[in-house]
Amino acid sequence: MKNVGALLTLAICMAALPLLALAHHSFQGEYDQSKPLNLVGKITKVVTENPHGWIYLEVKNANGKTITWQLETPAPRALDENGFTRNLVETLMSTGEIVTVTAYAARDESKHAWAGGITRADGRTVITIGG
User: Fold this and answer.
1) DSSP readout, 85-126?
2) 25 by DSSP, 3-state: which?
3) Burial letters for 63-87: b for 16+ Cβ neighbours within 10 Å, e otherwise?
4) Which DSSP symbol is given to 83?
5) What's the Cα-to-Cα distance from 30 to each of 27, 59, 123, rounded to whole Å?
6) Among candidates 112, 106, 121, 129, which has minimal Cα distance to 41?
7) pTM, full prediction
8) Which residues is 43 bridged to in the sheet?
9) Angle made by CA atoms 49, 128, 121, in degrees to the nearest 5
10) What is the pLDDT of residue 19?
11) Which of 9, 27, 37, 93 lies 20 to 30 angstroms, CA to CA, from 107?
12) Phi-psi region for residue 113, left (φ > 0), alpha (ψ -120 to 50) or beta?
C-alpha cells in the first residue's frame, strides 16, 4: 500500500512539472534584445507584484493616436532598490510627467515589452534592469 501512495505522489508531481515550467518565463524566450525601444509617454498605472511588476505607459504614435504599452519590470524590491519607489511613482502619475522608457520588444510584436530603464523629463534616470 505504501508503494501505491508513493507512486501516486510521484505521478502527481510529474504531471505538475509542465505547469511549473510555465510559471516563470525566460527573458530570451519572451523578449528580443535585438529590438530595443525608446518609448516616450506618461505612466498611467503601476502594478508591483512578485515575481514581476507592470508599468502601463501611454505613448502617442506617429499619427497622434494614443497606444498603451504594458511594460514588465523586476520584482518590487529590485525596483525600490534602484530608485523606482512608491513616492516617485505617485509623483510621475499625479503630474503626468513625460518619461522615456528604454525597453526590449516582445517577440510576439504586441504592445508588451521589458522595461530596461526610465529617464525623467529632467534627465534623471531610474534604472530598472533586472529580472
Assistant:
1) -HHHHHHHHHHT-EEEEEEEEETT-SSEEEEEEEE-TTS-EE
2) coil
3) eeeeeebbbbbbbbebbeebebeee
4) T
5) 5, 22, 29
6) 121
7) 0.76
8) 57
9) 115
10) 40
11) 93
12) beta
Contact (CB, 8 A) for 124 and 69: no
Type of residue at 48? T
Which residue has 506617429 as its cell numbers?
A: 62
Q: What is the pLDDT along the chain (131 residues), one digit of tens a residue?
A: 566 555 555 445 455 444 444 444 566 678 999 989 999 999 999 998 898 899 999 999 999 999 999 999 988 998 999 889 999 999 999 999 999 999 999 999 899 999 999 999 999 998 776 54
Cβ(56)–Cβ(73) below 8 Å: no
